[in-house]
TrEMBL record:
One of its GO terms (molecular function) is hydro-lyase activity. Residues 148-244 form the Mandelate racemase/muconate lactonizing enzyme C-terminal domain. This is L-alanine-DL-glutamate epimerase-like enolase superfamily enzyme. One of its GO terms (biological process) is amino acid catabolic process. Pfam families: MR_MLE_C (PF13378), MR_MLE_N (PF02746). Its cofactor is Mg(2+). SUPFAM superfamilies: Enolase C-terminal domain-like, Enolase N-terminal domain-like. Keywords: Magnesium, Metal-binding. The keyword Ubl conjugation does not apply. The lineage of its organism: Bacteria, Pseudomonadati, Pseudomonadota, Betaproteobacteria, Burkholderiales. It comes from Advenella incenata.
Length: 382
């Protein structure tokens, strides 16, 4: 079963008026996603998702013109061999670093979908896991900057659906952030896990002001206070209090950067994204690396049901699995365009799909409803 074709399909949608969410990276205008389609000589087709990295066209070009020729004709089941070839030819020298990781992630995901379909097994089973209840938090592009009263109402609406954990967007002024967090804790009570995400918008001085308040409300973590490569600030932040773990990983690529986080002793919660970090193959290695240090994996999940499904299979098959990030965005047609891939239970948990491979039935006819839109996905007022 040889890899006979690789196609990258960029998709976009615009946020309708009044549906934008504001957070540390700006206000959302539109969202992009790249669906990867891998064909085999046996006729099995696998699908994956690559994160667009704010430039869908660049990632599509990298896949079509550079990565595809490297793996055409290889055994479709040889996920390690394909990964090694891409790493040797596109990362090690003159490559595009993070861009190549984004681009290859969707191909690797599609190869795992093919393996599962060929073996007639759901991916969690193929990976050595089992169907199990996985705790989920209300995340995705939601719970953004807004008056504390409406934020608490929004958070409560997710708790009413079954979620036992919610993630608030911080990285606004520290005064606003603290007021919102205190109010949401008061409204939700003590039994709900409150997580926080600054989307890289803080300075170390702001983190010194905010962390004691996050400790007071028993926040589950502070996510991405700084830019992904600012290890010095991460190291400083980790010394402020042992009560609130620092989380990061959605913008860290491959096990090598997670090893750097480990060496910096700076990040206690890891959040690899399967559509960004180098695919399922690499995310398994990252989980294994973290497991030796008892680091939990609360995977970040991106736009479409393909990544959501892959993440659920992954969390059902690694030893140090934490939360599934459930996209609760009020407007995300990508989430459900192949049908719902998860549903929240009264216990606050979700389960991986049961079908072979990723367990997602892809209807390609739907792609024409989301033609790619050039331009930025977020606007920021500096
Ligand atoms: Mg985040």
């Amino acid at each position: 079963m040889k890899i006979s074709n690789v196609t990258a399909i960029p998709l976009s949608y615009r946020l309708p008026e009044g549906k934008t969410v504001t957070m540390g990276v700006g206000s959302t205008l539109k969202r992009d996603a790249i669906i990867i389609r891998v064909e085999t000589s046996d006729g099995i087709v696998g699908y994956g998702e690559s994160h667009p990295g704010r430039s869908a066209g660049a990632i599509v070009s990298l896949i079509e013109n550079t990565l595809k020729p490297l793996i055409l004709g290889m055994q479709a089941t040889d996920v390690i061999g394909a990964w090694q070839r891409i790493h040797r030819m596109q990362f090690s020298s003159h490559g595009l670093g993070a861009g190549a990781a984004l681009a290859y992630s969707g191909i690797d995901m599609a190869l795992w979908d093919i393996r599962g379909k060929a073996a007639n097994m759901p991916l969690y089973e193929l990976l050595g896991g089992s169907s199990k209840r996985i705790p989920a938090y209300a995340g995705g592009i939601a719970l953004g900057y807004q008056p504390k009263e409406s934020l608490a109402e929004e958070a409560q609406s997710y708790v009413d659906q079954g979620y036992r954990a919610v993630k608030l967007r911080i990285g606004d002024t520290t005064q606003n952030d603290i007021a919102r967090c205190l109010h949401v804790r008061k409204v939700l009570g003590d039994d709900i896990d409150i997580l926080t995400d600054a989307n890289t918008a803080y300075t170390i001085a702001q983190v010194r002001r905010v962390l004691p308040a996050l400790a007071d409300i028993k926040a589950g973590w502070l996510e991405e206070p700084f830019a992904c490569n600012d290890f010095a600030s991460y190291r400083e932040a980790a010394k402020i209090t042992p009560l609130v773990p620092i989380a990061a990983g959605e913008n860290h690529f491959m096990r090598f950067e997670f090893a750097q986080m480990l060496e910096a002793g700076a990040v206690q919660v890891w959040q690899p994204d399967l559509s960004k970090t180098g695919g399922i193959t690499e995310a398994i290695r990252i989980a294994d690396l973290g497991s030796a240090f008892r680091i939990p994996i609360h995977a970040h999940s991106s736009a479409t049901g393909l990544n959501h499904a892959a993440t659920l299979h992954y969390l059902a098959a690694i030893e140090n699995a934490g939360y599934f990030e459930a996209c609760v965005s009020h407007f995300n047609p990508f989430r459900d365009m192949f049908g719902a891939t998860f549903s929240i239970g009264k216990d606050g948990c979700v389960e991986p799909p049961k079908g072979p491979g990723l367990g997602v039935e892809v209807d390609e006819a739907i792609f024409k409803e989301y033609p790619v839109v050039d331009g930025p996905g977020y606007i920021v007022k500096f």
